[in-house]
């Protein structure tokens, strides 16, 4: 079945062609291409407005704003086009694309047995491109190649920083190959049209994140 991908002028041509190849793996339902239920969210740290773009400001909690929901490629593009680019976010903000019923709050019980991969890239100018490729790999189910059959990808995120960009890949269960950081970065790069250098790559369980928070 041929899948129509709406033209989006602010997405790199190689990214649009990448999506066309990915969505063919989805299941067509009623003339649309089913990409399962994904929830698009933006995370905002609760900081005074005058501190909102201060990279050294103290983070005290966060609030979530739901941007939309997509179950088809068409719905995804509609929501994606409306959202700001990661490069337009402030340093205390982040974007997340989560599979329902999950949301980007690791404190929730549904995340208790899981964790996340975090990859830091030092070129801020590549934030928009990396985010586009990351979410397309998510809805195209290509990220499942990064985990074993007993694990699931439940969400992805991107966070702009003053001198870098951090992307996240959330898993429903622990990744028992968490120590193989270079191998994971290579396998992730294999999903991209062009490889990127990640200065820092690591996996952390949400149980460990909770312990770190409690010790502060």
From TrEMBL:
Database matches in SUPFAM superfamilies: eIF4e-like (SSF55418)
Keyword RNA-binding: yes
UniProt-listed Gene3D superfamilies: RNA Cap, Translation Initiation Factor Eif4e
Keyword Iron-sulfur: no
Gene Ontology CC annotations of this record: eukaryotic translation initiation factor 4F complex
MF-aspect GO terms: RNA 7-methylguanosine cap binding; translation initiation factor activity
Keywords (A to Z) from UniProt: Initiation factor, Protein biosynthesis, RNA-binding
Similarity comment text for this entry: Belongs to the eukaryotic initiation factor 4E family.
UniProt-recorded name of the protein: Eukaryotic translation initiation factor 4E type 3
Lineage of producing organism: Eukaryota, Metazoa, Spiralia, Lophotrochozoa, Platyhelminthes
